[in-house]
Amino acid sequence: MSPHAFDRLCGLIHRHSRIHLGPNKVTLLTSRLGKRRRELGLQDWEDYVAWVESHSEEEVEVLIDLVSTNHTHFFREAIHFEILKSELLDKLLSLSPTARRGLRCWSAGCSSGEEPFTLAIVLAEYMQQKQPDLRWQIDATDISNRALEAAQRAIYETHRLGLPDPSLLKKYFRKGSGPYEGYSKVKPELAEKVQFQRLNLFEQQYKVALPQHIVFCRNVLIYFETESQVQLVRRLHDLIEPGGYLIVGHSDSLMRIKHPFVSLGNGVYQRAQ
Ligand SMILES: C[S@@+](CC[C@H](N)C(=O)[O-])C[C@H]1O[C@@H](n2cnc3c(N)ncnc32)[C@H](O)[C@@H]1O
């Protein structure tokens, strides 16, 4: 890939997603996009860039799908779910009348669904023990259509679920058989608590319920450059109810950027009351 084609591709990707690719990502782009370029019958990278630029939004979406990193797993950074059930939910529900009327959570950058379904399991367990009548819902959004398709299928390899308590498997998943041997599907009662939709975090208007009480935006900020991180964190701040929480991944540290949240440690941030 020529430096010129690489720069044009990076510009296109940034314009549509704000995903920032440094100069050392030539090999990554070449390997992720090579198959698509060949499928389209295009000889070189300049032709591919011209094709994406001149074709529909759909081809841009394919490009973003191929470029986005969707790595995730159930109970990733488990400390966040521990803090949620031991501290944050009790505090929120004692202080926020709107949360008591209906708790709203958002997994922003949900990838293939493991994060919002983990959140759903933790909330379901908490509500069963402490607030059986409380209404709650989870919005789960991502820019990647491919990741969202997997999320909506809600089928995962059983040995990779890594559930902290084996009883959760029977309670929240149906084990597959035949061609689905070795896989488990999230039960509909849990799946219906999570609404998936495609959402670019830099689009003008978010179609999620507002205000939010708890927003998970983990391992997403690292893909953006500082200016975009600042913009996104401010925007998330404004849509979280005062007293509500933003949770970011350990690699997303907000230390380097100016933001209005109160830091509670471990990547947990609170909007001031
Ligand atoms: C590494 S995954 C993180 C998944 C999950 N939050 C976790 O921590 O396990 C990052 C996700 O961010 C999504 N993403 C990247 N840029 C985005 C954007 N502009 N808008 C929405 N999602 C985006 C990617 O598609 C990818 O699924």
Structure, briefly:
This protein has 11 helices and 10 strands. The chain has 273 residues and is of the alpha/beta class.
How would you describe this protein?
It is a single chain. This protein is an alpha/beta fold and 273 residues long. It has helices spanning 3-17, 26-39, 45-54, 57-67, 79-95, 97-101, 114-130, 145-153, 167-172, 188-191, 226-239, and strands at 103-108, 136-142, 155-157, 173-175, 183-186, 194-198, 212-217, 240-248, 262-265, 268-270. Strands 6-2-1-7-8-10-9 form a seven-stranded mixed beta sheet. Strands 3-5-4 form a three-stranded antiparallel beta sheet. A hairpin with a 7-residue loop joins β4 (173-175) and β5 (183-186). α1 packs parallel to α3 (45-54) and α1 (3-17) packs across α4 (57-67). The protein is globular. It starts with a helix and ends with a strand. The relative contact order is 0.13. The structure holds S-adenosylmethionine. S-adenosylmethionine binds at residues 17-19, 68-72, 76, 109, 111, 115, 142-144, 147, 200-202, 218-220, 223, 249.
